[in-house]
Structure prediction request, 136 residues.
Amino acid sequence: MTIFFNIEGDSDSPVIDSDIEEAFFWALKELMPRKKNLDVTLEIKPLEDAAGYHWMEYKGTHFIELDPNQTPDDFLCCLFHEMVHIRQAERGIYNDESIPYRERPVEIEAYSLQEELLSKWKSLQQSHSESQRTAI
Prediction:
């Protein structure tokens, strides 16, 4: 299994790199549990017209850009949204730009799953935090 995840760019991210990496690998397991080969580069940099972008260079190699000027929850939600697009691209499901943005099936799925993933992630983090306090 070869999964690569690289974080580049702005050090003023609202979420520390180790937490971004943990969230990435957790979401990868949730969205693509059987995925064996993937190379994802996340660049954190100010964006002018969106909170995040995804594009696929070729199957298995993806790039995500995320704007650091977000709350931690919004930043992670955006990461999860773009990861849904990775799953779609890996499955050969592509964006139809002739359809208005919010009506595109790929966006409907990504917006729906981003909230579900964020909720699960926050619950998981809360239970980890509670179990650590109990252990002390």
